[in-house]
Design brief:
alpha+beta; two-stranded antiparallel ribbon; Membrane-bound Lytic Murein Transglycosylase D, Chain A; 13 helices; elongated
Length: about 280
Amino acid sequence: MKRLVRDPGAYGLSMSPIPNQPYFARVATLGQVNLKIAGQIANVSPDELYELNPAFHRWATDPSGPHFLLLPVDSADVFATSVAQLSADQRLGATHYSVNPGDSVASVAAQFHTTVNVIRELNDFPIGRLTVGMDLRVPSAVPELPAKVVLAAARIDGRDRAARRPHVQIVRRGDSLWAIARRHGMNVDTLAMMNGLHPGDTLRAGQRIRLAGDGAGDSGHARSGRRVFYTVRQGDTMVEIAQQFQCSVPQLRAWNGLGAHSSIHAGQKLRVHTVRHG
């Protein structure tokens, strides 16, 4: 593996450059924080937030700590500034409820569309009866964040972040190119082309899929201007492959040292130079 990475060209391989810079940063939360709100502040998708912080697998971070999250570096500063402006209730997305006669933990949980465990965790009390007039923390239906925080979060857009730095999706069990493309607002043909795949190809768990494009503005053309390797499938023709990669058949032949009458076969790897579009 060391030799392959050090000199991929000697083995007929081409590897995309990986920038020598950190992908994530450790940011203080200043206490327990609702992970949905943390994602909103940092403009990080729930999937990415939980992948970066697998120790926190519930609705909020552990009240006893550690009081920090790992976030993409380009979200870290705005999150740190914004979370410092939130009260403990705002960090948890909580409001207050005064217990009425006949209330139970279960009925209060049902009233606020949550679970008994969340009510107990928000209020840090063990099994026990509620007393009339008790002040309970309950989940807020719509978390109200300070205007400055909302504005700061809006300035960090996930699609802009994807355009500024390379991004790789680690395939999870059951993932498909269609699902990954939809999750990231991409055109599935572009995603397949950038990875030398067909849209219907089966993915394996742990496989790395390179992402690019700007969501709704992606027209299906590659913008990266780089080399990829495509594995020929049964029934493929040079014309079809050239059309898929937005190049000409003569270009495809030249990149792979093929003559005008050379044939291709299933399993063969073809070098393709994706075209840069403005």
